[in-house]
Amino acid sequence: MGAFESRMSFADLGLSEDLLKAVEEAGYTEPTAIQAQAIPPILMMKDIIGIAQTGTGKTASFVLPMIDVMAAGRRRALMPRSLILEPTRELAAQVAENFEKYGKNHDLKMALLIGGVQMGDQVKALNEGVDVLIATPGRLMDLFERGKILLNGCELLVIDEADRMLDMGFIPDIEFICDKLPENRQTMLFSATMPPPIEKLAKKFMSNPKRIETTRAATTNKDITAFKIPVETRKKRETLRWLLQHDHVETAIIFANRKTTVRELNKSLQRHGFASSEIHGDMDQASRIKELDRFKKGEVNILVASDVAARGLDIKGVSHVFNFDTPWHPDDYVHRIGRTGRAGAKGRAFTFVSKEDAEAIENVEKLTQNQIPVFGKKDVRVDLVDTSKTETADEKPKREAKPKREDKPARGRKAKDADEPRAERPKRNARRDDRDDAPVPAGEWNGPKPGFLEVSAT
Ligand code: ADP
Ligand code: MG
C-alpha cells in the first residue's frame, strides 16, 4: 500500500498544465509516494537521491519534472541537453515509452541509444539535436569514443536503477560519463536499494543531494512465515521435494534465478511425479498466460518461475513460495514471498541458501531489516513425519542422473503412501508416488530429521 498512498494530487506538485493533461490521459489519479516527494525538488533543479522499491513509479518521478525542466531551452546538434542512464535495453525502452506518453504535449526530441539497434539512426538523431537522451552506458561510451556525441551540453543527468547498474558492473562507465558532463548540472539518482558503492558514487558526483526514501511495503506480513534453509547446491532438489511432500503444500510457486534452472527443475519435478509447470522469460506472453491459467485452474499445483516472467502476472494466494535460489535483487525477495499469505490464510516461504546465495541473503536481510529464521526441527510441520516411514537403509539412493529409472514408480511400495492421511494431501498430487519420501541418500540419512537440517552452508 504505502508506496501508492501519498494523499496528494498531481496538481499540487507544480507541474505544468500540459503535463497534467498528459498524466490524466495516462490514467493516473494520484502520485505515488516517491513521485509526490521527488517531483517538487526536481522542478527546483535540486540534486536528489530517490530510494523506493521496485514498482513504485520511480520512472514518472523523474520523467514528469524533466519534461517541464527541459521545456525551456533549445536543441543543438551532437549535444544532448539531458541524459538518462539505464542498465538494460528493456528498461531504456520503457523509459522512452514513458517519455512519449507524458511528453506528447511538448516539443521535445528524444533519442534512444541502446545496443542491438542500428547505430546509423541513432547518430542521425544526435546530429539533429536531442533534448533527452536515454542510453545504456555501453552504447553511450561507444559513441562517445567515436566522437559522435558531445556530453558537455548536458545539464541534467539521471542515473536510474543504480543498484542494478552496480550488479551489472557499470559503475566505472558511469564514473567515466559523469566526468565528461559539465560540473554545473542537475543530477538525480534512483535506486531500490543503496549499497555502499552507490553511496560513494552519489557522494562523488552529486552536490548536496536531497535524499528521499519512501517507506517500504510491509515485508514482515504477519501472515507469512518465512524460513531460510542452508543447503548444499546439489541437495536443493531433494530438499525441495521433501518439503513439497511434508509441509502441507497445496499450491506453490518455486522461484529460481535462471531460466535454465526453471526449465530443468520443472522437468525434474515432473519426472518425480509432481504436477508442475513453468514460466520463464524465453516464453512469449501468450504461453506464460496459458501456463498460469493451468495453475489457476488447478491442473497443476506447482509453478516454477523466473522473476522476469512472474513480474506483472497476477499470481497471488498460494500456500507456499519457495526460493530455490536466493534472489539476486533483494526487492525480488519481497515480491516473491508476497505471493503467499492471502487474506486470512497463512502462507509459508522457504528460501534456500547455498554458498552461492550467501551474499544475496545478506542483502535480503539488510533490506528487510529482519533476520530470517533458519528452518529447524521444531518448524517441520510434521505431524506427518514418522520415522517408521523413512526410507530404509538398504534402499539405493536415487540419482538425478538416471531419469529412466525415476520415471517408473518403484514397485510394491504403494502401500506406504497409502497410510499417509489422505486429507493432508491435495488430490492433484495423486500422481506422485512415495519414492521421494527420503530426502537424502540412505547413507546420510540420520534418523527422523530431514537431511537439510544438518547441512550448513552459511
Ligand atoms: P519503478 O521504476 O519504481 O520500479 P515504474 O516507474 O516502472 O516503477 O512503475 C511501475 C508501474 O507503476 C508502471 O506500470 C507504471 O505505469 C505504474 N505507475 C507509475 N506511477 C503511477 C501512478 N501515479 N498511479 C498509478 N500507476 C502508476
Ligand atoms: Mg525503474
Strands, helices and their partners?
Elements: H1 17-26, H2 33-43, E1 48-51, H3 58-71, E2 82-85, H4 89-102, E3 110-113, H5 119-128, E4 132-135, H6 137-145, E5 156-159, H7 162-167, H8 171-180, E6 186-191, H9 196-205, E7 210-213, E8 224-230, H10 236-246, E9 252-255, H11 259-271, E10 276-279, H12 285-297, E11 302-305, H13 307-310, E12 320-323, H14 330-337, E13 347-353, H15 358-368, H16 403-407, H17 414-418
Parallel strand pairs: 1-6, 1-7, 2-4, 2-5, 3-4, 5-6, 8-13, 9-11, 9-12, 10-11, 12-13
Helix pairs in contact: 2-3, 3-4, 8-9, 14-15
The protein binds adenosine-5'-diphosphate and magnesium ion.
Structure, briefly:
The protein is of the alpha/beta class and 458 residues long. It is 36% helix and 13% strand.
Q: What do these coordinates show?
A:
With 458 residues, the chain is α/β, with parallel strands linked by helices. It has two domains: 212 residues, Rossmann fold; 201 residues, Rossmann fold (3-Layer(aba) Sandwich). Strands 3-4-2-5-6-1-7 form a seven-stranded parallel beta sheet. The chain has a six-stranded parallel beta sheet with strand order 8-13-12-9-11-10, sandwiched between helices. Helix 3 crosses helix 4, helix 8 packs parallel to helix 9 and helix 14 crosses helix 15. It is elongated. The N terminus and C terminus are likely disordered. The structure holds adenosine-5'-diphosphate (ADP) and magnesium ion. The site of adenosine-5'-diphosphate (ADP) has 13 residues, from helix 3. Adenosine-5'-diphosphate binds next to helix 3.
